[in-house]
Amino acid sequence: MSSSSSSSCTSGQLNVDNPVCFCGLKASQRTSLTFDNPGRRFYGCINYKRNSCDFFRWRDPEICERGKEYIIELLEQIGHLKKKVIALENEISTTPEDNYTLRKKLTNIENSRMALREEMDRLIAKITLVLAIQQSADC
Ligand SMILES: [Zn+2]
After folding, report:
1. Among 51, 71, 72, 130, fewest CB within 10 Å belongs to which?
2. What is the Å distance from ligand 1's center to 84 Cα?
3. Ligand 1 centroid to 19 CA: how many Å?
């Protein structure tokens, strides 16, 4: 099962009609992402981490078993898609490096070609000289 099964939830949302918690503050509305209550909205204290206010109230009724299964399936599909996106982003981010490597190889090939061209020019010059000497000797 995916790691989204932990007791995680979406970020809090404050609405005027939210109930008031034990601190006397408007409770925030969040969405549960647990296996038992996937997608089910609830109210909780806005300061539940700092204060020890354990105000908790479900906003939505319990989801039927098929609904839970389906939401979990969808969350897992989202997880797979997120992994794919990350893999594709990594692929894209390595492409400039590959282009750099290719450009470097191309420069090396270009340098080798120029060196070979110079070598060829020197050899042609030598051949031309030898032919000229031979021609003048024949005359
Ligand atoms: Zn509170």
Report:
1. 130
2. 39
3. 11
Separation of alpha carbons 44 and 2, rounded Å: 25
Ligand 1 centre to CA of 52 (Å) is 8
Q: How far, CA to CA in Å, does 68 sit from each of 1, 21, 58, 74, 119?
A: 14, 28, 16, 10, 76
Q: Copy the structure tokens of residue 117.
A: 């061209």
- Specify the residue for token string 């400039």: 96
Listed range (31-35, 44-48, 89-93) with the worst mean pLDDT: 89-93
How far, in Å, from the CA of 60 to the mean position of ligand 1? 20
Tokens, residue 75: 């969350």
Distance CA 32, CA 34 (A): 6
| Cβ atoms 55, 44 nearer than 8 A | yes
Predicted model pTM: 0.53
pLDDT band at 139 (very low <50, low <70, confident <90, very high): low
